[in-house]
Amino acid sequence: MSKLRNALAVAMLAALAAASSAQAADIILVNLDGAAEGYNDTTVVAPVGGNPGTTRGQQRQFVAAYAAQLWGSILQSQQPIYIAAQFNPLGPSVLGSAGSQTVHANFTNAPVTNVWYNAALADAISGIDLAPTSFDIGSQYSSDFPFYYGLDDNTPAGQINFLDVVMHEFGHGLGFQNFENEAAGTFLSGRPDIYSVFTYDNTTGKYWTQMTVAERQASALNYGNVVFTGPNAKAGAALILDDRKDFRVLSPAPVAGNYAFGSVNFGPLISTTNFNGSVVLGTDSVGTAGDGCEPITSSVAGKIALIDRGSCAIAVKTKNAQNAGAIGVIIANNAAQNPPPNFSGVDATITIPTVVVTQAAGTSFKANLPVTVSYVVDTTKLHGADDQGRPRLFMPNPVQGGSSGSHYDTAAAPNLLMEPAINDSLYSAANLDITPHLLADIGWQINAVGVFPVAPGNAKVGSPSVPDCDTGVPIASQSGMFTGGSIQASNEVCLLSAQTRSGYYSCMDAARDRLVSSGLLTTLQGGKMMTCAKRVQSHQIFPIF
Predict the structure, then answer these.
(1) Model confidence over 196-244: pLDDT tens digits?
(2) Which of 335, 275, 285, 341 shows the shortest CA–CA distance to 314?
């Protein structure tokens, strides 16, 4: 049974690929949810953040349609990309998941032989639907989380931006993933994949395709030392990543060097001016002395307090150290894991920085106190890349199934879309950072300016029944900004939601205002966008509800 005739394909979320460039990929989402659930949820809600939906299901569909149009506008494919989409209970810590439904090797025009390619990419390269009875990508999202369904990057506290999640998961399905079993060190059916062709371990000096099974097992635990070597990803990293910032131990000699660290979301950010000095133990006189859960009694005034994780919230430990005069806090993890975790907390009165280090680092520091630390910026290197400028991949110890290898390292700054966790600094409505660069390395043709091998296209506004109107705004730039793609994605949502020409125009006008106010469009570009929008007539509006 073909994808179009699959009995589970209840409704098409983006059946109309409006306003796309000539070679843009047509991404079609197929709703697998049942009546009144997931994408079909009939709960009445008010429109929010540029999302015109009036039920929760509609808002979810509009976000998915926006994401499909944005990704489709920057990828070139003559074959439609079918994505199965649904909501399910996924547990307390999983926002969503997605991946290729089939893999292919040695197909027509395959750039590299004897390696697996994900379905959507293989179809795009070959020009053939290589698995006509299967979806190209499967995706599902958590029914357990309070998602924010706006398109304006104005996510309220306590919610998760659904667009960021969808864009992230689509990125996996489009090829930002390997098919490796990291824990076992084995390739799928003994054959490597195109993503692993570019996966390199700086410690061994070997690509994953050159390693033994045992070497790949070890490499999958080699945090901070595994990178993606594709030339486009490297070029994108140079444009997008910040200068490298290091948490550095200056003395004594046995522990001197740079250390990975986790952060917290309270208090000031660690900086070169607020995190320098001597480290001493922060202890209290109640219960476990080193946990800092009660008032600190050791002498930490004017120093950085080293405190063990456990027994109470991190914010409590920091506040107790601050009350005792400490200028900063280092939390030593109480579990053997790498990288050190990040922590959340709430205390608006905290005015000193806090970092988290591994259990091993904490043990070493305790054995060599007093330790002198500093936070330094190296303008010759990139934060989240190796010394050659190649972006680091996420290789935690222990292995995290489904996350290890198939994400950028959490050390990257700024935060990247394809890190293993969604954070509030992303803006996937217009910024895909290094992700398209990596996809270009594995074989995708990209509509973008600069480092990509394909000439750019401009954003076009219109509908399927009339010639597209060229706004003059490039689909994307080499810096990862997809402003033109955002125009096309907004056009898609407005076409799908509007019942009248005036409704469409009002929807586009609101989208223009969001893009201009955020600095993504100039006033002149916004004017051209609306000039094009005026050409759309009432008979060209295609509501899907």
Answers:
(1) 999 999 999 999 999 999 999 999 999 999 999 999 999 999 999 999 9
(2) 341
Record the tokens describing residue 167, joined without a space: 């864009």
Q: Are residues 345 and 377 in the same domain?
A: yes
In terms of domains, do 86 and 66 share one? yes
Rounded CA-CA distance 470/460 in Å is 5
Task: Reduce the DSSP state of residue 488 to 3 states and report it.
Answer: helix
Q: Are 537 and 495 in contact (CB under 8 A)?
A: no
Q: How many angstroms separate the CA atoms of 347 and 460, rounded?
A: 47
Comparing CA positions, the residue from 383, 380, 270 lying closest to residue 330 is 270
Pairing of strands 469-474, 458-461: antiparallel
First to last CA, the chain: 27
The predicted model scores a pTM of: 0.88
- Is residue 268 within 8 A of residue 292, CB to CB? The reply is no
User: 6 lies in a domain?
Assistant: no
User: Same domain, yes or no, for 255 and 234?
Assistant: no
Same domain, 175 and 206: no
Is residue 193 assigned to a domain?
Answer: no
Q: Tell me whether residue 4 is in a domain.
A: no
Phi/psi of residue 33, nearest 5 degrees: -75, 150
**Domain that residue 474 falls in:** 458-540
Q: Are residues 100 and 168 in the same domain?
A: yes
- In Å, how far are 6, 45, 282, 475, 490 from 327, measured between CA atoms? 62, 47, 12, 47, 47
**What total number of domains does the chain contain?**
4
Specify whether 278 is located in the same domain as 131: no
Residue at 390: amino acid letter = R
CB 260 within 8 A of CB 362: no
For residues 438 and 529, state if they share a domain. Answer: no
5 Cβ contact list (under 8 Å, min separation 6): none
**CA 236 to CA 430: how far, in whole Å?**
16
Q: Is residue 452 part of a domain?
A: no
Amino acid at site 502: S
Amino acid, single-letter form, for residue 357: V
156 and 28 share one domain:
yes
Q: How far apart are CA 153 and CA 450, in angstroms?
A: 26
Q: What is the pLDDT of residues 12-53, one digit of tens each?
A: 333 333 333 446 899 999 999 999 999 999 999 999 999 999
Cα 114 to the center of its chain, rounded Å: 29
d(C-alpha 288, C-alpha 293), whole Å: 8
